[in-house]
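wait is this the right file?? whatever heres the structure
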């Protein structure tokens, strides 16, 4: 029974990671299009927070996914411990990064804290349910996200609606197949 549960959890977690990564690739230029509309306002500067916010959201969902193992096996103390550790790391990192980087530093601290929680939950959860991650295409999506990020930062907002629309179309053409495959994989997984 544990083998079936491990395979199930490996399959669902891997597909979920690819799905979230693909959606992040699509969201980045879609959000940039919105920022084209507010380019002349003081809110436009907040775009620098978007990539870190997408990373934070992805890692937060994966932390919850890995943490669900603790709930299933009745080890909620591990859930609380990893949350408290992440809180401490995020607080220290945000405090130390706030002065040199401002709001971006605080957001980076939150990402570091959430990464701590995600990795610690991943490692601790494996003690209760051995599973691995086999995210097919994750490296392609990571490179796509990085290239989109560089392209979006290369051109200031305002007169770039066509460029950002092109970035969105490219992101959809490249990332959407990964997202759709992941959705099919998640929905087709037999219960463990």
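ok assuming it is, sequence goes like this
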């Amino acid at each position: 029974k544990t083998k079936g549960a491990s395979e199930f959890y490996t399959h669902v977690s891997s597909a979920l990671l690819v799905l979230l990564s693909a959606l992040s690739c699509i969201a980045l230029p879609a959000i940039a299009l919105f920022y084209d509309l507010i380019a002349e306002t003081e809110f436009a500067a907040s775009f620098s927070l978007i990539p870190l916010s997408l990373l934070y959201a992805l890692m937060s969902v994966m932390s919850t996914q890995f943490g669900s193992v603790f709930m299933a096996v009745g080890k909620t103390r591990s859930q609380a411990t990893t949350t408290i550790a992440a809180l401490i790391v995020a607080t220290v990192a945000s405090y130390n990064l706030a002065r040199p980087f401002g709001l971006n530093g605080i957001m980076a601290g939150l990402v570091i804290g959430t990464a701590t929680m995600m990795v610690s939950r991943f490692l601790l959860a494996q003690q209760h349910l051995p599973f691995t991650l086999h995210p097919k295409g994750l490296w392609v999506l990571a490179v796509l996200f990085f290239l989109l990020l560089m392209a979006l930062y290369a051109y200031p907002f305002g007169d770039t609606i066509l460029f950002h629309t092109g970035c969105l179309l490219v992101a959809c053409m490249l990332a959407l197949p990964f997202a759709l495959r992941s959705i099919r994989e998640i929905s087709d997984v037999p219960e463990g």
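The mean pLDDT is 92. so i think its the right one actually
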